[in-house]
Amino acid sequence: MRSLFCKLFLSFIFIALSTSFITAMISYWAQIGPYAELMKRIEYYQNQTLDNLLAVSGLGAVKILENGGEEEVIIYLQELEKTNNGRFFLLKDDRSTFSGSTLPAGADDLADAARKSHDIQYNRSETEVMVALPLLTTTGQSLIIVGTTTRIHWPPAFTHEKGGKKWPFPIPLGLPLIVMLLIAATGCFLLARSLTAPIRDLRRATQQITKGDFSARVDLLSRRKDEIADLSHDFNTMAERTQSLLQSQKCLLRDISHELRSPLTRLNLALEMARQRTNKTEPYLDRIEKESNRLNELINQLLILTRLESDVNSVPEESVHLEKLIRNIVQDADFEAAGRKRRIQIQNLDDVIVSGSTEMLSRALENVIRNGLHYTEEESSVELSITKDKNQVLIIVRDHGPGVPEEDLDQIFKPFFRVAESRDRGSGGTGIGLAIARQAIVMHGGTIHAKNAETGGLIVQIKLPLL
Fold first, then answer.
1. CATH match of 33-153 with 3.40.50.720
2. Catalytic annotation on 374?
3. For residue 122, what is the enclosing H or E element?
4. Among 6, 382, 388, 395, who pairs with 462 as Cys (CB 3.0-4.6 Å)?
């Protein structure tokens, strides 16, 4: 999933639905589900325990009353309350107790009901459970033993009543609310962290570039596949482009000074010698003309390269027939190469049309072809093919020269780069032709790269989008 909008939307939907679902399930579980069933069982066992306790205690109280008297019964009931965490009363026929203590509310009515029914009776309130059990002594005296104990209820944190004050909720909502808040907080925290962490990385890299460190990059491509990853990719491309331009500017100034200094020095030397040998000036004047032409060529190519680099988004939208363009280039280049025992061989030439500038594409392809003619061996040919694919055209130019070291394959498309360490003219032309070709191809949305052929020579591959 690449869309950040979809991630945000689906994340919020998931959090909301999960919270609602879990809240509903907990509400069901707390009210009518297994927890409520467990509470019913606990209350049932509590009643049964209290019944058994009253039955046993009642028999004990009757025996003590018959054998020890009322004082012994009172002491017995007090001990019973201490050991069982409850309150116990033994009522006579006139509803009075042996200890004279006041009965809790509802105990009289519950005792009357037990006396009339001759069976155990229960009374449950919100806070306690009251049980009344009828007894009969051996002398025929009717007694009622009443026991009360605290009722097992919901924990205070999860009920709608605490400290005697009712909450504004009609049903218990404590546990569902706590779970809902935890889920929402966790989901929002993770979502916020996921959004802000890459932004902090971008800010950190931007600050480094502001301080002059153009090597700063953002590493998010391996972790994300959304708009933020695209933004980081664009940022890295911008930083790389800026760093490359600054480096190229430095190299350009250094190389231009070197390239222009040598012919100018030779020009000055030739002029000085022409002044000294007025009778034999013809060779020196020819030399001056040759160096002037080289300077003119160098300056023209520098101007072309500068224009290509500055007008990246101003490519004319023309329909360019590559077959016709290639044939014109090959005809001129093949005619010039014939005198150097080299030629151009067209292996495949599909009729394709691309959109762009005829002048720029012609200059790019001509530079690549002439570069191949310059380095290919004598009595060999430069092989050229154009193949049309689904949505692109592949142009391959292969020579049979010495090739290029692997570490320099990407460098040959940079201005003034020469494979030979000595920067003399014997190693090639001005070193700008392939740089112009690369810039022109990139402007047309294509790619260009070079590789060494297995049997020797250099292969230059150009890919251009079809019209």
1. no
2. no
3. strand 121-124
4. 395
What is the rounded distance in angstroms from the CA atom of residue 319 to the CA atom of residue 336? 28
pLDDT, tens digit only, all 467 positions of the chain = 456 566 666 777 777 778 777 777 776 666 555 666 667 777 777 778 878 888 888 888 888 888 888 888 888 888 888 888 788 888 887 778 877 778 888 888 888 888 888 888 888 887 788 888 888 888 778 888 888 888 776 554 444 454 545 544 444 555 666 777 777 777 777 777 777 778 778 888 888 887 777 788 887 666 667 777 788 888 888 888 887 777 776 666 566 666 666 776 777 777 777 767 655 666 766 777 777 767 767 776 776 776 666 555 556 678 889 989 999 999 988 888 888 889 999 999 888 899 888 888 998 999 999 999 988 998 899 999 999 988 899 999 999 999 899 888 988 888 777 776 433 444 445 678 888 889 889 888 899 999 999 888 999 999 999 87
**Longest CA pairwise span in the chain (Å):** 167
Burial of 210 (0-12, 13-18, 19+ CB in 10 A): exposed
228-310 with 318-465: one CATH topology?
no
Rounded to 10 deg, the angle between the 34-68 and 70-84 helix axes is 160
3-class SS letters over 368-427: HHHHHHHHCCCCEEEEEEEEECCCEEEEEEECCCCCCCHHHCCCCCCCCCCCCCCCCHHH
From first CA to last CA, the distance across the chain in angstroms is 31
CATH architecture of 318-465: 2-Layer Sandwich (3.30)
Which one of the listed residues 258, 374, 400, 449 is annotated catalytic? Answer: 258
Domain residue spans of the chain: 33-153, 228-310, 318-465
Q: Is residue 106 classed exposed, middle or buried when 0-12, 13-18 and 19+ CB atoms within 10 A define those classes?
A: middle
CATH code of 228-310, in short, is: 1.10.287.130
CA pair distance 31, 176, nearest whole angstrom = 11
Q: Can you count the helices (H) and strands (E) in the chain? A: 10, 13
Q: Are 129 and 73 in contact (CB under 8 A)?
A: no
